[in-house]
């Protein structure tokens, strides 16, 4: 009897210790997150088609998790890889390690009208990369260091628009921002003439992809864990105002890119493994996961599948492609349409996917 009592006391002490550990060391103060029910299936009559399994692999083995893809006027393709390089692929198919930056924190890229590359660095802000080398365009906004620069687009007037996914969490613990489910993201504008950066929109839910409409009268910025993208008007009577562009997406939006026909391609990631949405509805579970980050691998669904959707200017999904089991690609983070192909970046691949947009996929 005594030994049973001692053992029970021991269990109680262990339980209290773990609870205290969780409460004191949890890095988050979480809110409940409702994942839209439509996020489990394609909407507007689309079903899983596994077309992404037909992607060809460009630069296989040479590219360590290329998150974004851009193509310049000469048709040279650029990407930033986790080993700290800006790598590029010439028209003749040859890959080149072009510029070394040396950090694993490089995400979205843009080709500027002047011909250099602008790249988001989650550690340093916005970088300019050219034949002459690397320099910092923007590192601070309102006196604070720019954290988690994520995606970038340049307007024809030279202004650069970019997102700061989270002012609280960094690239390596991005999932904590999802667990906390409080909006720490920003949409920023960099003016190259004044070398000044300003905040256009704050309180965004993990501000991720940024794109400009074809006639540059609005920006679209995607809020990952709200499964939606917003429109921010740059011109016209609604200038400076924000409205919903597309919501209830069938996955959490990552990068967004303008397509040649004026529509948009959005890469969607899976935030939670099947059946584990309950995690996002329980503060206790969130604290537990945040305190023992290894558990996050058990709920984060990004590594299990891939999906991209094409959305019209009216905010309606036109078509979508997926790899429902991550057979060829998973964690696809960007989709660039160029010369009738989709180029797919991923944070879980050692290549860029290239999918022909033939009649069988459209
Ligand atoms: C491909 O083009 C690049 C850039 O012009 C050049 O440096 C490279 O030698 C070419 N490779 C081949 C195999 O022709
Ligand atoms: C522009 O501002 C950044 C800081 O945000 C600074 O590092 C950079 O040197 C400035 N560039 C010029 C040309 O003044």
From TrEMBL:
<keyword id="KW-0926">Vacuole</keyword>
<dbReference type="Pfam" id="PF20067">
    <property type="entry name" value="SSL_N"/>
</dbReference>
<dbReference type="InterPro" id="IPR011042">
    <property type="entry name" value="6-blade_b-propeller_TolB-like"/>
</dbReference>
<feature type="domain" description="Strictosidine synthase conserved region">
    <location>
        <begin position="153"/>
        <end position="237"/>
    </location>
</feature>
<protein>
    <recommendedName>
        <fullName>Strictosidine synthase conserved region domain-containing protein</fullName>
    </recommendedName>
</protein>
<keyword id="KW-0325">Glycoprotein</keyword>
<comment type="similarity">
    <text>Belongs to the strictosidine synthase family.</text>
</comment>
<dbReference type="InterPro" id="IPR018119">
    <property type="entry name" value="Strictosidine_synth_cons-reg"/>
</dbReference>
<dbReference type="Pfam" id="PF03088">
    <property type="entry name" value="Str_synth"/>
</dbReference>
